[in-house]
Write a structure and sequence with these properties.
The complex is a heterodimer.
Chain A: H1 5-8, H2 10-21, E1 27-33, H3 39-47, E2 52-55, E3 62-70, E4 73-79, H4 91-102, E5 107-113, H5 117-130, E6 134-139, H6 141-146, H7 153-160, E7 164-166, H8 175-187, H9 201-218, H10 224-232, H11 237-250, H12 254-263
Parallel strand pairs in A: 1-4, 1-5, 5-6, 6-7
Antiparallel strand pairs in A: 2-3, 3-4
Helix pairs in contact in A: 9-10
Chain B: E1 5-7, E2 16-22, H1 26-34, E3 42-48, E4 55-59, E5 62-66, H2 68-71, E6 74-78
Classes of the chains: A alpha/beta, B alpha+beta.
Chain lengths: ~270, ~80
């Protein structure tokens, strides 16, 4: 079976999203996390159950989409399927990963379970390899306290280099703080500073070789280090997505088409492609 | 004295051991690593299903059931 764009449903989602956002959405936020971390509770808490679920073509993976207003900004939220990993072992995980990489969300909030935080951090590190624009929401801290866990959030923030927001989503605790953290990362001056995972010398050499070729192909418009890692990992599914991405890069966006019509001339938007 | 190494399937219920190696490769290996079965992790056999397979293990704060097919690939040492 060919893993076409249709089959992953990603292009359907990408095509649909800008339309449904219209011009009024100011930011696109993705919610990621292991299954059963209360991700959807966070989603419902933020949006006030203001979501509708969309089933994107080709796969029975449901992505919930919702919106909220905060400090006069319209924020669109996408609830990704629960995933233990972004190494795409399952359809769900592939959708989550593809959205994080190709969907260009402004911020990714990773929701984790405070009662087993350690195992959840695996996913956090994997998302951080894709983008530094990550906020860690540590949910269920009430249950962790009951179990006698004392989590040092400041320390966690220091180690990861990203904002960490403790929460009890079921009781709506921490959600305002989460909105504020998102706001600061999208519209404020906040700069996250995660550490890059360095692999052994042989692998790093391979990475930089593949990276050079990718940068030539994609004009440095994406995180070529992460793609290089996936390719070296022997991941073929990613190749289809890359081809799609090249196609999208060549197509003018809706905004560009509109601008061209307004101005009446063919402005050279896509130089060098 | 060297710690004794054995397959995870041989770990008795209620006992702890330390993971030293995974004998798998590719996606299956990724899966096990994602579930927290990373070398140096302490693992405890907690429950056994009536037929003896799968067995539930406590791994980094979560209870995870593994089939013998998988746990045979996991080498642990006694602690």
């Amino acid at each position: 079976m060919g893993l076409t764009n249709q089959a992953t449903g990603l292009s359907g989602l990408l095509r649909e999203l800008p339309d449904s956002l219209g011009d009024k959405a100011d930011a696109l936020i993705a919610l990621a996390g292991n299954p059963n971390t209360g991700k959807s509770t966070v989603f419902n808490g933020l949006t006030g159950l203001n979501q509708h679920t969309g089933n994107w073509p080709g796969k029975t993976v449901v992505l919930a989409k919702g919106a909220y207003r905060y400090r006069k900004k319209e924020i669109t939220l996408v609830d990704l399927p629960g995933a233990y990993s972004l190494l795409a072992n399952s359809a769900d995980e592939q959708v989550a990963r593809d959205f994080i990489f190709f969907g260009n969300p402004d911020v990714i909030v990773v929701v984790t379970d405070a009662t087993c935080l350690e195992r959840n951090l695996n996913l956090v590190l994997q998302v951080l390899e894709i983008t530094p624009r990550v906020i860690l929401c540590v949910n269920l801290i009430d249950q962790a306290k009951q179990k006698g866990f004392n989590i040092n959030f400041k320390k966690l923030e220091q180690i990861l280099g990203i904002p960490v927001v403790p929460a009890v989503a079921r009781d709506k605790k921490g959600l305002e703080e989460l909105k504020e953290a998102i706001h600061l990362m999208v519209f404020g001056q906040y700069q996250s500073q995660p550490k890059t995972l360095i692999y052994d010398e042989a692998l790093e050499q391979g990475i930089s070789q593949v990276q050079q070729e990718l940068d030539k192909l994609f004009h440095k418009k994406m995180n070529s280090r992460w793609i290089a890692l996936r390719l070296l990992d022997g991941e073929m599914a990613i190749v289809e997505q890359l081809l799609e991405m090249m196609q999208r890069m060549e197509e003018p966006t809706k905004k560009e088409v509109r601008l061209r019509e307004e101005i009446g001339v063919d402005v050279g938007f896509k130089q060098g492609v | 004295m060297e710690a004794e190494r054995f397959e995870l399937t041989k770990l008795p219920l209620g006992s702890n051991a330390k993971i030293v190696a995974l004998k798998t490769a590719g996606l299956a290996r990724n899966r096990l690593l994602d579930l927290g079965l990373v070398p140096a992790t302490i693992i405890e056999a907690v429950y056994k299903s009536p037929a003896g397979d799968p067995v539930a293990y406590k791994i980094r704060g979560a209870l995870i059931a593994l089939r013998a097919e998988e746990s045979r690939q996991i080498i642990v040492e006694s602690i």
